[in-house]
Write a sequence for this structure.
């Protein structure tokens, strides 16, 4: 029995943060708009299409962006609003499709395989786009093909607020004339390497023998060759929203040593922060738990600006601990829980971070991921 051809739709909210800000303040519509920190050392978290005409891109230093477009309006990020609208879109998609994957705060994959005989996949995906726009006011673009890879590239080509279907059998010819950097997983360094080899289009990349790509880049070379040839078997992973991440520690002996307890809180916070960043998640609520020697257990929580940055998380944890701890009593256990989790990463959350801070955290996480979770940590967490 022949294998059924898949039909995968990809949806991406156009300039998501910018359009949310325009919904909140319609006067911003049509203007060069930058979302991010106001200091020269901050980075651009998002920018409007009007700002992109000046060469501005996400993750660009704000100093450079202001130089390219001095008349741009700069707005601090509001993750609470972005999370709210992301949930609205998620609920619309959840209620209208059989299976979907939420790839980020503003990006979705939908498996429409088998629906052609009932509705027509292109028509159905178009109706879903229209429904999102009508019910949220947010423009969303859509690509449709036999796999996630080609659908995502099609969405990028359809932006802004467009739809593009790649007919079965035309996947390679669609990708062929595009620049290599249009392929997912091809960043600036890989682009530079390929360009030095004379490889500028996906067609040229697809014609390089797979063995040569493996010798050049290892397993990544094989995957890059597969993508250039429009091969992608990855499934649409059903979306299940994670409710929380948490950790706790029970001391070998009850203690009133505040410095020791604070060091343990720092260590636990770093552990959870690392876990959030590995999952591309942000937290908007922190809970600290104390269990005293008499087994009386108390908790205190606070809402925060959505983040996965250790320095902000640690400060909030310390503040909660100070409000919660009764210095006259021995402590048996400490616990921390992060809730109100949303998809997100450095560039879309750390609006007041500097480029240097972002690179530092990325390098630290890279070391801990490669060599062990606790290879690099704050000295204050080692008491």
């Amino acid at each position: 029995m022949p294998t059924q051809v898949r039909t995968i739709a990809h949806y991406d909210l156009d300039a998501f943060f910018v359009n949310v800000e325009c919904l909140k303040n319609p006067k911003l519509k049509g203007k060069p708009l930058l979302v991010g920190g106001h200091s020269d050392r901050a980075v651009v978290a998002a920018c409007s299409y009007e700002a992109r005409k000046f060469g501005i891109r996400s993750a660009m230093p704000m100093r450079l962006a202001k130089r390219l477009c001095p008349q741009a309006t700069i707005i601090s990020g509001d993750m609470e609003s972005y999370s709210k609208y992301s949930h609205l879109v998620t609920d619309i998609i959840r209620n209208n499709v059989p299976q979907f994957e939420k790839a980020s705060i503003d990006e979705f994959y939908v498996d429409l395989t088998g629906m052609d005989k009932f509705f027509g996949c292109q028509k159905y995906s178009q109706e879903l786009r229209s429904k999102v726009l009508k019910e949220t006011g947010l423009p969303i673009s859509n690509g449709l093909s036999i796999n996630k890879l080609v659908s995502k590239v099609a969405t990028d080509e359809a932006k802004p607020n467009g739809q593009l279907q790649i007919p079965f059998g035309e996947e390679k010819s669609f990708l062929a004339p595009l620049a290599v950097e249009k392929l997912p997983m091809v960043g600036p360094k890989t682009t530079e390497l390929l360009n030095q080899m004379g490889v500028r289009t996906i067609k040229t990349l697809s014609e390089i023998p797979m063995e040569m790509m493996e010798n050049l880049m290892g397993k990544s070379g094989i995957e890059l060759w597969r993508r250039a040839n429009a091969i992608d078997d990855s499934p649409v992973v059903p979306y299940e929203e994670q409710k929380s991440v948490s950790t706790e520690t029970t001391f070998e002996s009850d203690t009133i040593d505040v410095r020791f307890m604070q060091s343990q809180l720092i260590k636990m916070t770093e552990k959870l922060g690392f876990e959030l960043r590995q999952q591309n998640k942000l937290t908007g609520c922190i809970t600290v738990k104390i269990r005293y020697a008499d087994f009386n257990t108390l908790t205190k929580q606070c809402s925060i600006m959505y983040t996965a940055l250790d320095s902000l998380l640690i400060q909030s944890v310390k503040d909660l601990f100070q409000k919660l701890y009764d210095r006259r009593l021995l402590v048996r256990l400490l616990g921390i829980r992060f809730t109100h989790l949303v998809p997100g990463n450095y560039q879309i959350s750390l609006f007041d971070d500097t480029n240097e801070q972002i690179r530092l955290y990325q390098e630290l996480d890279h070391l801990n991921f490669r060599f062990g979770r606790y290879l690099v940590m704050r000295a204050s967490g080692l008491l």
